[in-house]
Structures are given as structure tokens and as C-alpha cells.
Specification:
Helices cover about 50% and strands about 15% of the residues. Helix 4 packs parallel to helix 5.
Length: about 270
């Protein structure tokens, strides 16, 4: 059974930039109406304007996914414009670097609140609307670091492994319903998430420059190509989507060498 994006209504978190913005435009080109959320109102409106040029209905909603009250109020606002929801894309996310002992507890909790609890709250809130549909779908954004967990990315990896586990268990629970679920593991996508990440601990200038060069080398995929792959996966009702050779390779190496994969992978990035 495939999912028809034409005439569907999608709620997308983190829709003002990066993968979220690119996916909004990719879905609009396929005839999908949009309810876009983000904390960045100016860029959210720019994306909405570009999407409306494709002839679809677009609403915008300024939302911080850590705001439980804002999420609770969102369905009514979306229904006021669109009347229904058939696709939920949990894309909003933040990044953070630093060894576990250097990351303040409040910073760790903030990242988990955005990346994991935001996904859980949005899903819990919109499931009743998705259940009304003859066919509905959920997309949850994990990461390459939801497949492997590098040092210095404890909080981020924990959140993305949590999204993966939540998604896989929920998909099994929804197996006998019309609701499908795709968990997405992008590799290195050129978005601003790495540049805007919060870093903790002390880095020398040389270490910072090396880290920047590593990120630049790894971030190869364009948001547009990534969005196209996700849109295709939604239409096919894929259960899991690995994007980029980094994600595909890391997944394979981790499966073959579960205890020693990071030694192998870290050697490949030098």
C-alpha cells in the first residue's frame, strides 16, 4: 500500500530551514498541503510563501517543541485551516557537542526536550487526528548518530537513539492500523544544525580547526536531495530510511562489529 501525497495535509516541525524547509517544498511540489511550525517566524514565512507558489494551502505556526501547552493547542489551529491531518513529520532538532562530564545537566535536558520529548509530544497529540484518516503516516527524524554513538556526542546520540527506539516500537504497535511510520537516519547533510550547535568543554584552536574540517568533509548531502529521498520513502511507506553513504556504511559496520565499530569508523574519518 502506497501513500498518496497529493491532497494530503502534513504537519512539519522545524520547517523554517534545513531539511524541514526542503521537505516542505518537496511535499508541496507533490500536491501536499502544509502546516509548518518553527521558532523562526521570518524564515518560516519565507518557506510558506515558496510552498504556496506550488498551489497548495499552507499555514504557519510559531512553536517551540519544548512547549507542552503550545503543542496541545496546535491541533485546533491546524484544523481551523486544513480540517484534517494525514502526515506528521517530527523534524525539529538541535545539536550539542562535548564530553558527558563537560555538558551541564540543564543543557543535556534541553537537548533531550527538543529532540526526543518534542517528537513524543507531537506524536501523542496528533495520533487521534491521524487515526481518523483512511491512510496516514508519521516521519521521525533520527540521525547517523542514532545508528552509532561517537564520543563527544553523548546527549545528541542519546536523543537520536531514543527517537529510533520510540519509532520502531510505535511502528509495531501501529502495524494493524492505517498509520505507517518511517524513521529517517540522514548522514552528513549540509544544514546549519552543526554550525549552530552548542559546545561544552575546552577546545584548543587547533582542535577546533580540526573539528571544523571534519564536519565540512562529512557534510556532503544537500537538503534538497535529502528531502526528495524522504518524500519518496513516505510514498513507498518505507519503515526505515538511511540517507547517504555515511549512514549506510556505518549501519553495516556497526552490525558486523558491534563492539569495535567505532575504532574502525573513527579511522575512516581521519
Amino acid at each position: 500500500m502506497t501513500f498518496d501525497l497529493k491532497g494530503a495535509v502534513a504537519v512539519i516541525t522545524g520547517g523554517a530551514g534545513g531539511i524541514g524547509a526542503a521537505l516542505a517544498l518537496a511535499l508541496a511540489r507533490r500536491g501536499c498541503h502544509l502546516a509548518l511550525t518553527d521558532i523562526d517566524k521570518p524564515n518560516l514565512e519565507k518557506v510558506a510563501s515558496a510552498a504556496r507558489a506550488q498551489g497548495v494551502t499552507v499555514s504557519t505556526h510559531v512553536l517551540d517543541v519544548t512547549d507542552a501547552g503550545g503543542i496541545a493547542a496546535l491541533p485546533a489551529a491546524v484544523l481551523a485551516t486544513h480540517g484534517r491531518v494525514s502526515l506528521l513529520v517530527n523534524n525539529a532538532g538541535v545539536a550539542q557537542g562535548g564530553k558527558f562530564e563537560d555538558v551541564p545537566e540543564a543543557e543535556f535536558d534541553w537537548l533531550m526536550a527538543v529532540n526526543f520529548q518534542g517528537t513524543v509530544r507531537m506524536t501523542r497529540t496528533f495520533l487521534p487526528l491521524l487515526r481518523r484518516e483512511r491512510a496516514a503516516h508519521i516521519v521521525n527524524m533520527s540521525s547517523l548518530f542514532g545508528l552509532v554513538a561517537p564520543p563527544g556526542q553523548v546527549a545528541y546520540a542519546a536523543s537520536k537513539f531514543a527517537v529510533r527506539g520510540f519509532s520502531e516500537a510505535l511502528r509495531h504497535e501501529l502495524a494493524e492500523t492505517p498509520i505507517g511510520l518511517t524513521v529517517v537516519h540522514p548522514g552528513g547533510v549540509r544544514t546549519k544544525i552543526a554550525a549552530s550547535a552548542r559546545f561544552h568543554g575546552k577546545l584548543t584552536k587547533a582542535q577546533a580547526e580540526t573539528q571544523a574540517k571534519t564536519w565540512d568533509r562529512l557534510l556532503r548531502l544537500s537538503p534538497d536531495a535529502t528531502a526528495s529521498s524522504i518524500a519518496d520513502a513516505i510514498e513507498r511507506r518505507d519503515k526505515r530510511l538511511l540517507i547517504g553513504r555515511e549512514a549506510i556504511g556505518a549501519d553495516l559496520i556497526q552490525r558486523l562489529f558491534p563492539a569495535s565499530h567505532w575504532r574502525i569508523l573513527s579511522g575512516l574519518t581521519k
